[in-house]
Structures are given as structure tokens and as C-alpha cells.
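Anyone opening a protein record will find just a pair of labelled lines. The record below illustrates this layout.
***
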Amino acid sequence: MELTAVFKKVPEGYIAWVEELPGANTQGRTLEETRENLQEAIRLVFEANRELTGRDLQDEEVLKESVSVAAL
């Protein structure tokens, strides 16, 4: 799976987000710092989603499996 990172230059440096992943956004003084921050934001969104799902389904019988998505 590949995601699309968008970087926008602003007076303070850069802001960035991931087109396919709502909530994965960040900022930084340099492009490199912003790239690093965006990697962390992506990890945090995935981690939070897993935690929320786990809480919501803790008393439910569910089946979990890996899924791969082809890039568009």
C-alpha cells in the first residue's frame, strides 16, 4: 500500500497531510522535519484506530485478517 503525502509551504515552514488517511496531518519548520512528523502521524492514526476498534469490539466475536490494497 502506498499513500499520497501532500506538502504545502507556509510562512512558518510546511504543513502536510495524507490524502487517503483522514487525521494524518502535521507541520514542521523544514521539509525533512515535516516528512518525519508525517510518518509519526500516520503511525499514531493507525494505532488509535486499532485501540478504538479493540475497545468497541472487546465483548464481540469478530474475525480479523490481513488485507492488501493495490495502489491506484
The chain has a mean pLDDT of 93. Residues 28 and 34 are 4 Å apart (CA to CA). The radius of gyration is 15 Å.
